[in-house]
Amino acid sequence: MNDKLQGKEFLTGRFGKVPLRDSLNRESKLGRRVAHLLLAIYAITLGYVILGLIVNYYITADIFFALSIVLLFFSLGQAVHEMGARNAIVFLAITTFVGFLFEVLGTSTGVPFGKYYYTNFLGAKVLNVPIVVPFVWFVIVYLTFSMCFSYFGERKAMSESGTRVLGLVGLAAFGAVAWDLMVDPMFSSPSYGYWVWENTSSTLTLSGVPLSNFIGWFCLAFLMIIAFLFVTRKKKVILRRNVIDSRIAYALLLIDATVANGSLEHYFVIAFGVAAMLTFLVASYLVSNSEKEKIAKQSSARQTTREHPEAN
């Protein structure tokens, strides 16, 4: 229960009244520490996997599974910390539901990605789609969303100009596609065999992956973010910023994919994918930094107005 005393807001609980700002600050610090811890665990596990790829020692399937689970929990923790539990659940629900829906459509009809099917390597399936796949959509789309929208939550989401919103959404969708440029040729190769593309002789491909797949990825990631922004259009999107962890996670995915593709001698994929992922890293940083400076100027102007109202 919230209360007010002498112009200050308080949170009333079993231990009495605590200043609301102090309560939120403690919650923010705890959430950030949890995100840091999960990211550190992911980095250590990934380091073990990368070392195995370099020196060619055997890595069990359990290690790869643990790596994916830790990344999922980090992304969930990061989303809860940055957006709050309610917004994080909405984002998770939209990305997993839409991802599952289009994966079913893709494996059944070939639209919008191209014709493919999943092998049994990824475990149990529902309608020919492995249960884990929709959560992959959540992870990569949230990371790129966080990197582009880290300073977007200072104002109401859909009150921004349409051009600016669409530009940020497009950039985040590009970041998701850039990652898929690296992993799709790798995971669909005979060495991994997570899924198989059924291409015809006329299909345009990148290392066996149809180009329509990357167009489908962009459109689907774009749709997911637009749907989330629409549902949360009357709310602030980002409540607490921790974009540095999202950038580190994305950079770790870049390193992992580079080493893994190198072990498969996918040098063209590496050149193309690294260029795309680095472009996104730089572009999202510049956009985020620009927004940060804009917000700082607006905050300074408001402070000046409060201190010197006669100037107006």
Please provide a written account of the structure.
There is one protein chain. The protein has a domain at 84-289. The strands form 4 sheets. A 3-stranded antiparallel β-sheet has the order 1-2-3. Helices cover 67% and strands 9% of the residues. It contains 8 helices and 9 strands. The longest helix has 41 residues, at 267-307. With 312 residues, it is mainly alpha-helical. A hairpin with a 2-residue loop joins strand 8 (205-206) and strand 9. The chain is globular. It has helices at residues 20-55, 61-83, 85-109, 133-149, 162-187, 211-231, 243-263, 267-307, and strands at 2-5, 8-13, 16-19, 116-118, 125-126, 129-130, 195-197, 205-206, 209-210.
Blueprint of the fold:
Elements: E1 2-5, E2 8-13, E3 16-19, H1 20-55, H2 61-83, H3 85-109, E4 116-118, E5 125-126, E6 129-130, H4 133-149, H5 162-187, E7 195-197, E8 205-206, E9 209-210, H6 211-231, H7 243-263, H8 267-307
Antiparallel strand pairs: 1-2, 2-3, 4-7, 5-6, 8-9
Helix pairs in contact: 1-2, 1-7, 2-3, 2-4, 3-4, 3-6, 4-5, 4-7, 4-8, 5-6, 5-7, 5-8, 7-8
